[in-house]
Amino acid sequence: MYPQKRQRKPEPDSKTYPLGQPPDPPPDNARALSLVALSHSHLEHRIYTSMLAEATARSASESVFSTRQLLDLTGIRSPSTLRRGLDGLIAKLSIERQGNGNGDGRRCYLVPAPEEVLARRARLGIEPYPRQLRVRPGNRNFERAVERAIANEHLSRREVQVALCCVEGLTNSEIGRRLNVSQQTVKFHLRHVFLKFGVRRRAELISRLLL
After folding, report:
1. Is 181:150 a contact under the CB 8 Å cutoff?
2. Residue 12: per-residue pLDDT
3. For the whole prediction, is pTM greater than 0.70?
4. How far apart (Å, rounded) are the C-alpha atoms in residues 150 and 32?
5. Are 93 and 120 in contact (CB under 8 A)?
């Protein structure tokens, strides 16, 4: 007999990131962090989770970060790249800009917990889902699918988006246009999604997420 091939576990696409992955969130806010992560770009998520992990390790009075501290904390070398990520997080209510938290006139930033981010968005009538997901208010079935998708800690942000687009009934070409990627990339992500959910077909995936 020939030895069986060991099945390789696919690695997340380098252009996406696992939801709720390092820095590891506390168990009680893992779901909220995953939901917030759906609206972040890779750069924004890197900055946000770095700030969140550091703030968790500090006392509440020390959770304000200067730009210089964030350059060191995130390992981002370009101040303009960091500012772009910070501006995106501010626009999404994921962080707050403080005037001169260190008393030196320089801008500083405060990071709220994921639950607070979602609460602030809700107060302003902002949907918790990113624009790539067309969720109708009160659609409990789709909300359940979102919860189940983000509960799978092995899925990357992009894989969650692809899976939920399938639930919406989109074809591969429609998903590609929605996410601004090629059909080949959609198929690549779908293969990983099927494997991570233990299904073989799109209909099985949809049933797993909805039923």
Report:
1. no
2. 45
3. no
4. 9
5. yes
